[in-house]
Design goal:
The chain has 386 residues and is an alpha+beta fold. It has three domains: 95 residues, Immunoglobulin-like; 64 residues; 190 residues, Distorted Sandwich (Glucose Permease (Domain IIA)). 29% of the residues lie in helices and 28% in strands. The longest helix is centred in the middle third of the chain and has 28 residues.
Length: 386
């Protein structure tokens, strides 16, 4: 073969390789080019309310000179999406969240090669009913009424506006969100006018000194504050226990073992925190419910726990969600059946709203702390109804 033909053949191979490489780059790496062409992202709302059929959806609008109709809207959990339409350079994508999806990040993904457009990233605020309820329950009536007044005023103003196009859609969404929040505030305010239910149906408030708050517990003075913080409702083994109020589960302990009693700290000059830690062990299996009043109820000495009851579960007032177990105090070595609940009072510290933790709840004062036996007997019916 002549030498020049060999060079021409080699040149053809190289040229072919370059063309193929460039074509593959365009097809499989085109997102890098397309990504730069997304000039604006808009949406009807920054929020998703996963427990509302109307407010679990959103409309995302991408402004791009690149054709985005080949893309789908994605997140790292289950959603329904729909490419709606495009007008000029605006591409409309509708998304509806599944109730179990709490991932706030959305992005566009190429249908053909699954490449992601980094600049298409959208971050939403994901709210459950329980989260909003818990947020508002940490506010006192004064602040709740201020927020209610503000939302009502804003809603009336927005309803009067004559708007068109996408601005009208966004305005309608804001009105819906305001009304959703108002419904939760009104529920909390209504519940605060009511008394708590007793935790065990048919069992009225205890009247024995040993069964009410502030009664002495000298047999555990060496490792707790030796004060009874709670009420003991005598009842049958495995009796149903109900939520004393509508509220949110903020803690669940379901794996207590008798060996855990060995973790009780015993030493001279224990700190108050150590004593609270010891009390926490003595409560065994527990469910902590933050009520509409913002208080936290420590349901203790529990046996069967409803598997649906998890942290951030919302429960309704009167809902049956667990059962009575036995209590066993290691120093005294006795067994009995009762429902054991302290109720710790929310101090309504505005700077701590949605920032309280388990340790905070344990440090809150319990109802009737420091009050005499006679005082509690005279006033406890003001807190509870049967």
């Amino acid at each position: 073969m002549p030498q020049f033909l060999k060079y021409n053949s080699l040149f053809s191979y190289i040229l072919t390789f370059i063309v193929v490489f460039l074509w593959v780059s365009v097809v499989f790496w085109s997102d890098l080019v397309f990504d730069a062409k997304i000039s604006k992202i808009d949406k009807i709302s920054n929020n998703i309310f996963i427990d509302s059929d109307n407010l679990r959806n959103n409309l995302i609008v991408y402004t791009s000179s690149t054709d985005l109709s080949w893309y789908k809207l994605r997140t790292w959990c289950k959603i329904d999406y729909k490419y709606v339409t495009n007008k000029l350079d605006k591409y409309y994508f509708q998304v509806k969240y599944d109730k179990s999806c709490l991932n706030p990040i959305l992005f566009l993904e190429n249908k053909s090669n699954w490449d992601i457009l980094p600049s298409s990233k959208v971050k939403l605020n994901i709210f459950s009913y329980a989260k909003i309820f818990e947020l508002f329950s940490d506010l006192d009536d004064k602040w709740l009424l201020k927020i209610k007044e503000k939302l009502e005023k804003q809603t009336k103003q927005k309803e009067k506006l004559e708007l068109y196009g996408f601005v009208k859609i966004k305005n309608k969404r804001l009105i819906q969100e305001n009304k959703y929040k108002l419904s939760i505030i009104n529920e909390i305010l209504d519940l605060r006018k009511q008394k708590y239910l007793t935790p065990v149906s048919g069992v009225w408030l205890p009247h024995k000194y040993s069964k009410i708050p502030n009664s002495a517990r000298p047999y555990r003075a060496s490792y707790t504050d030796w004060i009874h913080h709670w009420w003991d409702f005598d009842t049958e083994f495995r009796h149903d226990v109900r939520a004393i109020d509508s509220g949110v589960i903020v803690r669940v302990i379901s794996d207590f073992k008798f060996d855990d009693l060995l973790k009780i700290k015993r030493a001279k000059n224990l700190s108050y925190e150590d004593k609270l830690y010891n009390l926490d062990i003595l409560r065994w299996n527990q469910i902590w419910l933050k009520t509409a009043k913002g208080d936290v109820v420590f349901y203790s000495h529990l046996d069967y726990l409803n598997p649906n009851i998890k942290v951030w579960t919302f429960v309704n007032k009167g809902e049956i969600i667990w059962k009575v177990w036995i209590t066993w105090v290691p120093d005294k070595n006795y067994k009995d059946y009762h429902m054991h609940i302290p109720i710790h009072k929310n101090p309504y510290i505005n700077s701590k709203v949605w920032k309280y933790n388990i340790n905070d709840y344990m440090h809150w004062d319990w109802y009737y702390k420091g009050k005499s036996f006679d005082y509690i007997l005279q006033h406890q019916a003001e807190l509870f109804q049967n």
